[in-house]
Amino acid sequence: MEKLKDKTIVVAPMKINLAKNTHIFNEHSLIQAKISVLRDENTPSSIFRKVVEEITILLASDALSHLPLEDISVTTPICKTTGSKIAGKKMVLVPIIRAGLAMEPAMKAVVPQARTGFCGVYRDPDTSKPVPYYWKMPDDIGNRSVFILDPMLATGGSMLYTIDRLKKEHHCKSIHLMSIIAAPEGVDLIQTLHPDVEMYIAQLDEGLNCDRYIVPGLGDAGDRIYGTK
Ligand code: PRP
Ligand code: URA
Questions:
Q1: Is 17 within a domain?
Q2: 223 is catalytic
Q3: What pLDDT does residue 172 have?
Q4: Is the CB of 175 under 6 A from ligand 2?
Q5: What is the pTM of this model?
Q6: Distance (Å, rounded) from C-alpha 24 to C-alpha 31?
């Protein structure tokens, strides 16, 4: 990696072993090409948001591939046959505000029956600890499959807060997370403390810099999605 400024330095690079529930797409050509568009500091917000949606759909094709099915009868123009529909517990999407909101419409496009809960949390700029400010979940979320959406998994603090609260307050038992770029620190934290959570991550990056931003990363996802900087 070309060194641009001190902030490109990874602080204490961490080697991790990936758990069986951690799915990484570092070798998926289409996802990789799209991530390079997100990384480019010259990509405008409008394209950035569109590419976040496209990667979300590509991740969803894997993350949703094991949903249980039930048989249904379908009549084609030729004959009757047996088809499938998604069975069992319905799904809840939980975007972490702000950046996770950009992934939600793409998920809704492929699973329109999913409900949506909202977790508002931001990182304190000095400590990088999560600061919660909003929480609204569907009443029966505990009985449903939950998909937490956030493009960035850095220290893992925001994701850990969200998972802890879903389990403690709502008794959620089937939790998945979908992120676009992760640091080893965030992956390690979640797979250690919540080994039952299935993680779908488009790219595992090198690590965190002194400001706990992902390197090489893409900068501040919320700012890039909404053009706030
Ligand atoms: C970003 C990102 C994650 C969090 C990841 O949000 O969207 O929620 O940081 O960092 P962590 O793994 O170290 O917790 P941010 O705090 O910038 O909030 P914003 O989207 O509202 O700007
Ligand atoms: N949040 C972001 O948006 N980007 C990072 O690199 C880390 C946290």
A1: no
A2: yes
A3: 98
A4: no
A5: 0.95
A6: 11
